[in-house]
Specification:
The protein is an alpha+beta fold and 119 residues long. The chain contains two helices and five strands, in the order E-E-H-E-H-E-E. The protein has one domain: 6-pyruvoyl tetrahydropterin synthase/QueD (Tetrahydropterin Synthase, Chain A, 2-Layer Sandwich). It is 24% helix and 37% strand. A five-stranded mixed β-sheet has the order 3-1-2-4-5. The protein is elongated. 19% of the residues are buried.
């Protein structure tokens, strides 16, 4: 099995309304997102075309989250909840008989990130 990884960045603002600390105030991040799709190669020698993967992520995720106030989309936009929302948006588009969405990684800062795997 091979895994294809595509990385993206987007800028967005949020505040954690059910949190008691400085993150309950409005603030922003430059998020880094990795999408990991694993499976078998096709006749062209690819698991999934990077161009196709990029188009799906742009349409289903980045068009909504980039330069957005995430609270308008996800009520409590913790990194964990954002990663789960991203998975839910992508899973049906990145699951076939040959490959499947395996992991979503979302960095809120260069040293803090979450990994979402649906098992």
């Amino acid at each position: 099995m091979l895994c294809v990884v595509k990385e993206f960045t987007f800028d967005a603002a949020h505040n954690l309304v059910q949190y008691h600390g400085k993150c309950e105030k409005l603030h922003g991040h430059t998020y880094k997102l990795q999408i990991i799709v694993c499976g078998e190669k096709d006749e062209e020698g690819m698991v999934i075309d990077f161009v196709e993967l990029k188009e799906i992520v742009k349409k289903e995720v980045l068009n909504y989250l980039d330069h957005a106030y995430i609270n308008e989309i996800i009520p409590q936009p913790s990194a964990e909840n954002i990663a789960e929302w991203i998975w839910d948006r992508l899973e049906k588009h990145l699951t076939t008989e040959r490959y499947k969405l395996t992991e979503v990684r979302l960095w809120e800062t260069p040293t803090s990130w979450v990994v979402y795997r649906k098992e």
